């Protein structure tokens, strides 16, 4: 599982990202004002969770794996949440976070995309 610091460092490395802390200390990353990834800690579960926008295929397949489930409140928009049980390495997290970034970027208005 990525640490919060490693998650933030990677997200900050993606062009034109913005960051806010909201929803009880969740680290929220956006492109063009739209969220693409979140690092949060659910105290009632005592675990860290990384949530991100997934492609249609990934959203269908990923929740079948241990430690991955549709994201609370965001599943209707095809988001998943991953915890340490998934056993992902840094490279895997980076690939999915970058894909989430690209998915959200692609949905931004053309004028906004062109301004970056």
Automatic annotation (TrEMBL):
It comes from the Bacteria. The keyword DNA-binding applies. The keyword DNA-binding applies. Keywords: DNA-binding. It holds the Pfam family YjbR. InterPro entries: YjbR, YjbR-like_sf, YjbR/MT2646/Rv2570-like. GO terms for molecular function: DNA binding. This is Putative DNA-binding protein (MmcQ/YjbR family). It comes from Maritalea mobilis. The lineage of its organism: Bacteria, Pseudomonadati, Pseudomonadota, Alphaproteobacteria, Hyphomicrobiales.
